[in-house]
């Protein structure tokens, strides 16, 4: 299967800003403008108490000076793992522009008010899924899920501010952010930011 058999954008790391957040926002916007579907989709890697890793795909909710925001139920696998090992890594891949971004750092859980506000500014479907709950638990049957989902959708439409106490907003404070620009001749550009002694340090990496 061919890879990047398209015209890819250029990237001059000499023009990169001093901090990674502005560049991340720019690349996210450019991916959306290039027609990349759901460019806010990302992978999240966590580990349990013994160090065994888990990875899954979910949505970025925000990226600001505090960090990269995502959310889940506290009782889900990722919620349980973050409770014992509050560190994680994120990965974004935008095939249409040959770019990826990797983010690594510590994770903190927001308070109940901010977590509730995060859920209630999302779609009715997101609230319904939150109301179903029981994420990562063993499911007895598809019929059981259908009944719970129908009830959750009905309540979400009736009560758009319905509480979901287990819903938690998490914020990853980056310690390292890598920007990768693919090249058809495999001369990929990798610009890495590391946070050291109160400031960001930039370095190029071999592809």
Your description of this structure?
It is a single chain. The protein has 207 residues and is of the alpha+beta class. It is 28% helix and 35% strand. The protein has 5 helices and 9 strands, in the order H-E-E-E-E-H-E-E-H-H-H-E-E-E. The chain has helices spanning 20-33, 77-84, 112-120, 124-132, 142-158, and strands at residues 41-47, 53-59, 62-64, 67-73, 87-94, 99-109, 167-181, 189-196, 199-205. Strands 1, 2, 3, 4, 5, 6, 7, 8 and 9 form a 9-stranded antiparallel beta sheet that branches. The longest helix has 17 residues, at 142-158. The radius of gyration is 19 Å and the shape is globular.
**What is the strand tally?**
9
Helix and strand pattern: HEEEEHEEHHHEEE
> Class by helix and strand content?
alpha+beta
| Rg, nearest Å | 19 Å
Question: Please, how many helices?
Answer: 5
Helix content: 25-40%
Mean pLDDT, to the nearest integer, reads 95
Strand share of the residues?
Answer: 35-45%
Distance between the termini: 20 Å
Shape: globular
Which consecutive residue ranges, at least 5 long each, have pLDDT under 50? none
Major sheet description = 9 strands, antiparallel
